[in-house]
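Reopening this ticket.

The earlier resolution said the output was attached, but the attachment link was broken on my side. Pasting everything inline this time so it's all in one place.
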Amino acid sequence: MSIDQDELPSESFLRRAMRKLIVMGYGALAPLRRHPTQIDRIFLPFLPKDRPDQGRVRLLVIVPFKDKVELTQMCFRGLLEQDRDGIDLCVALVDNNSSEAGTRAWLDELQAHPPKDFAVRHLSYQQPFNFSFLNNQAARDCADFRADVIAFINNDIEFTERKTLQTLSRLAASDPRVGALGCTLIYPDHRIQHLFVYTGSKIVGSHPLRGRPLNLKDPWFDSLRQVPAVTGAVMFLRSQDFKAVGGFDEELATSYQDVDLCMKFQQRGLVNVCAPFLVNIHHETQTRSKTPNYREAAYAYAKWGDFLRRNEAVPPIYSRLAENLVPGNAFFDRLFQFFPQVAPPSHLQAPGPAKEHS
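Inline output:
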């Protein structure tokens, strides 16, 4: 299949765009190009550097799982090892049709010897798999915790950055203009799995540069980035925003509900953000099929139309047909210039230069 030449940015366009996309402090950036859905100016969603710390954050972490107890244990150990200073934490382990004896034994052990410094809840929903329902229902069933921020975490996430919970929960709580927040995810062999989700690419959304070797020296990883969407494998958001948009769309049982949620936030004027300098491992799709759900893809396109295909947060340098750059990967070292960049508030600074993962 050939790429429409109209989608290819000219060299002169790239030069003009790069000159325009210079960060203007805490102001705004000119949009890359006009679409009917584009707002006139894109405001950066971070607070002045002298913003004071807003105190403790009540964080609800929702972890759905079905057996594969070794994965859930790995994820839970990572939560135990997180820097939780300033966080009141509740972890909801959302059990969907687990049946293995090892899973039951671990849950019994956890009930007998729970962590001493945060709450753990075991929620069991015996019904066909529906990612959206499981997370929505868990949020409803934990409403009494009165979370400021909800984190949706896949049970196949291996935390390698100890400040993930603290950084993303405090960023979410600090600014009402932020929608969903995510981080960099890599495969166990340290190739890129997720930088952000490019909406309207491939089927409904794709992961640009998936499979490329991780190079933390690339300028992309230096700062927070405004992005079209982040994956539901690690997604932080304010509970009030989640409730306001009706949570995940339960018509999207297996796929694309993260993209749908991020676009609902955009529709409300919120901005989705990635913290690239936080890098964790994703042991992707261990318990269900990787085959795309084409019925759900058709539903997403019928629901969003041009807002999905022509999202204002997507730079024009990506192919809609593959997880790479239209002009070729040589442009990766200039990719960061297409995304809004700004330092976070002084009390939420990135933890210094990123470390290489060996």
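Reporter confirms the inline version is readable. The mean pLDDT is 79. The chain has one domain: 56-340.
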